[in-house]
Write a structure and sequence with these properties.
2,3-Dihydroxybiphenyl 1,2-Dioxygenase, domain 1; Glyoxalase; about 40% strand; about 120 residues
Amino acid sequence: MHITGSAISLNVTDVRASAEWVQEHLGFTVAMEADGFCSLSHPDAGFNLIYLRTGLPTFKPESQAGHATGLLVALTVADVDAEYARLREEGVTVVTPVETEPWGERYFQMSDPNGVVYQLVQWV
């Protein structure tokens, strides 16, 4: 198999709110958009982040058409403490402050206006 791209698609109530949030706070840019759909990219991420409006009739499989729950978008960064300070200064909603796991994962979690959880990680 030769993979030519990758994406994460999340159902949200307000596509614009999540798209604007990741642009403002995480540096993603819009790759393409339409009514109820926005695909964003970041030069360092290696995947597109896609938001789909909950309830779109084109979403398949229909059994998965609800709001994304139990998921988080994890991004590895070089300095998690600096990002934590910057994002707190920007007023993001932190849901888990900086913690370090015994296996060397230092991270914190934040949420966007739709409640999508993003985790920034540094391996120490």
